[in-house]
Structure formats: C-alpha cells, structure tokens
Amino acid sequence: MAWKTEEFGASHEGWVGAVLADGSEPKAAVLDAGSSANFHRTREWWAYSGKLNRPRATVARGACSCGWRGEDQYPIDWGELDAFADEFPMKEPYDEWRQHIRDVEAQTIPLPPELEELLGRVEQQLYALVKDAPLAALKAVAALERTTKNISRRAAEYAAADDLSMESISQALGLSQEDARSRLLHYSLMR
User: How far apart are CA 151 and CA 94, in angstroms?
Assistant: First the structure.
C-alpha cells in the first residue's frame, strides 16, 4: 500500500520497505498477474516473505521514492502475520514517512501567509457552494482554471528567464528534478 500526497505525487511516494537479514534492500519484486504483458513491481515488505523464490525480509522501515529511508527498523514476525496481509501491523513507518514529507515541505518555497490564508478561505467557500449551489461552484472552478492557466504559463516563463538550476527549482517545489521539469514544461505549454 503506497502513500502519496497530492502536492508531491510520485516524487515522494512512500511505502513500508523490506530489509533483508544482511541489512540490504532487495530488488523490486515482479508481480505477474498472469494475463497481461504488463508486470507490476513492488518494493513493499509483504512481497518478501521468502515465497516464490523471493528473499525473506527480516525487518521493515519507511521508504520514499526520492531515496529517503527511515532510520528505525521494525521486526517482521512472519509466523504472526496473516498469510494475505498487505498492511504492515505497525504505524511507525508511515509516521516516519509523514515526518519526511513535513521536512520536504519545510524546504520548499513558502507561500506568503496572506495568500495561503486566502486560498484556504476560497477552498472553504467552494466546498460550501458544492452543497448549496453546485452550479455556482462549477462556475467558480471554471474561473479559477482560467486564472491558474494564465498565471501558471507566466510563472513558468519567468522561472525559465531567471535561469535557475533545475536542482533549485525542484527543491523549491519539493519535486524530483524530472517532475519539476515536467511541471514547468506543462505550465509553459498551457494556452
């Protein structure tokens, strides 16, 4: 079961990762559903039970697609687990990943407090409109989409003109460099 945030998406997708007895992290396990040419890959703890010629994990820890790994490790008692368990019995790896996400957020460029407050109020008012006047909510969403389309294109152009490194841009947005580049390109192409 992967964890995501809307803000950071695949750049910071988290999971309970497996650790082998020698302290190493196993390669991604390939899951064959049997009816497709597409195979799912996972690095989640439950895939490393020692069955199907996969190595057996002895401990688990929080993990993130950005490369972050939790410092604390949690023993896996395969004898106590349900044979079909896919949810780790302890919440600590998730809590550690959430702290990692808070740390990432703290390193991003902050929004001006008055803008953050305004965005929060707009969101509350839109949710209220959804219940009372859904068509008005849709009209407001369309207006916001027009505004964000115009502003995102200009912001991407200004960011490109500032000649910032992709490393700086990705840290400011809390994304991988690939995802930051993709976002800038997406915004710059909006018409």
Answer: 35
